[in-house]
TrEMBL record:
InterPro entries assigned to the protein according to its UniProt record, in alphabetical order: Pan_app
Keywords (A to Z) from UniProt: Signal
Keyword Signal: yes
Organism: Desmophyllum pertusum
Apple domain ranges (all copies): 34-118
SUPFAM superfamilies for the chain: Hairpin loop containing domain-like (SSF57414)
Full protein name: Apple domain-containing protein
Signal peptide range in chain numbering: 1-22
Amino acid sequence: MESTFVFLVAYILFRGFMICMSSQNQQSVPPGFCYRAKFSVNEDVVSNHALEGHVFKRSTADAVTQCHVMCRDDCRCLSMNYIHINEQDNCELNDANEQMNPAALKYRFGADYYDFVREFTKTY
């Protein structure tokens, strides 16, 4: 392998999900930076709500954490809706969030809304 080192640490607990990646050839992570995404199923949620009018992709996910990974892996994703009552197309990725358009956050039974925050820190 080339001199490029890829470091991926996934730390999964019952209440959270954090990722730290550092790589010289990752397009989404600049060299010398660490990318972190915190995700907590029980804390970072607006239950029975969804952001409407901003869905750019619908997918099927086995769990909310899988939907979060889909959002994390798409740089356009700023928030997500996870629809518990649907077996298909239950993960909706949004190109906006509640702060950008508060009026778009609407009551939807069986759906949970999650903001997605990307944090980059200098590693050296």
